[in-house]
């Protein structure tokens, strides 16, 4: 969906940009000459009028002849705005809306967030080809990406596994390269999707301290989507999954571990699918006070 908007924005940028350039380089000069010719053409009819009336009539004739067509006027007016929005959204930051509770308690359904588009490299709009590498995603980053199963849909999850990592999620416990990721209980959290309280835990991934939700009493319920790319890198069991992350890919999970459709189910996220790193909540219409950075 964001890809469709990006394409529409690119088309508008190109059309208005072409018209704006033609107006600056060609059309304005033609209109000026037409205005001067119209002003000169009425000179014979101005005899006997006062200086003020002659000046007014000349200006009126000039303005009518030099008036830009409506389509040129609209394009020239909107081009700077479209240029600003296009550059901001394509290369700096892009707004997204959180559509579900899969990232609770970090992000809530309805949060409006900003995503850093340049931290991992500059990409060409629409085709999303990286042209200037600047950095790579790190473990613990919250990222927006195009859903590998249906690239027209944007997902948001937390990066758990980097290229080459071995990820094990067994009995509600996460292991990275053989090391258990410690979970420290921090009370309960009301999970609105299931209308129940579940355990809230503190967890550290890389340099990022964050909170997750885990229902230790619920079953794993893992069902892999068949035949996703590098499916052979994962082994499923009744109590969890074990995966080797391929090069150029990432293993992602939602912070709401029992209510998130993520890499455990549909596989890995290619680097080319990553849109950027989410970093700021700027609004939630249900809770206007939810503003600020998050980890």
UniProtKB/TrEMBL annotation:
Residues 72-283 form the Peptidase S26 domain. It catalyses: Cleavage of hydrophobic, N-terminal signal or leader sequences from secreted and periplasmic proteins. The keyword Transmembrane applies. The chain crosses the membrane at residues 6-26, 71-92. The active site is at residues 102, 157. It is found in: Membrane. Keywords: Hydrolase, Membrane, Protease, Transmembrane, Transmembrane helix. Its EC number is 3.4.21.89. One of its GO terms (cellular component) is membrane. It comes from the Bacteria. GO terms for molecular function: serine-type endopeptidase activity; signal peptidase activity. This is Signal peptidase I. It comes from Paracandidimonas soli.
């Amino acid at each position: 969906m964001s890809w469709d908007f990006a394409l529409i924005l690119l088309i508008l940028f190109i059309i208005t940009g072409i018209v704006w350039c033609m107006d600056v380089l060609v059309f304005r000069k033609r209109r000026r000459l037409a205005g001067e010719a119209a002003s000169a053409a009425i000179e014979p009819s101005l005899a006997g009028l006062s200086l003020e009336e002659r000046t007014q009539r000349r200006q009126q004739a000039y303005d009518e002849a030099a008036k830009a067509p409506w389509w040129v006027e609209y394009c020239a007016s909107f081009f700077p705005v479209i240029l600003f929005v296009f550059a901001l959204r394509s290369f700096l930051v892009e707004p997204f809306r959180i559509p579900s509770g899969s990232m609770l308690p970090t992000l809530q359904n309805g949060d409006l967030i900003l995503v850093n588009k340049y931290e991992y490299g500059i990409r060409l709009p629409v085709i999303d080809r990286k042209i200037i590498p600047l950095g790579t995603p790190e473990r613990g980053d919250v990222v927006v990406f195009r859903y590998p199963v249906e690239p027209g849909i944007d997902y948001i999850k937390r990066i758990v596994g980097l290229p080459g990592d071995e990820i094990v999620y067994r009995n509600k416990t996460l292991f990275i390269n053989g090391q258990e990721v410690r979970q420290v209980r921090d009370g309960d959290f009301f999970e609105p999707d299931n209308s129940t309280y579940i355990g809230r835990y503190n967890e550290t991934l890389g340099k990022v301290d964050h909170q997750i939700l885990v229902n230790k009493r619920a079953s794993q319920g893992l069902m892999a989507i068949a035949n996703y790319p590098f499916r052979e890198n994962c082994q499923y069991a009744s109590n969890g999954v074990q995966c080797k992350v391929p090069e150029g890919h990432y293993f992602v999970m939602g912070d709401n571990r029992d209510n998130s459709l993520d890499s455990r189910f549909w596989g890995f996220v290619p680097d080319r699918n990553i849109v950027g790193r989410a970093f700021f909540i700027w609004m939630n219409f249900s809770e206007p006070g939810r503003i600020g950075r998050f980890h």
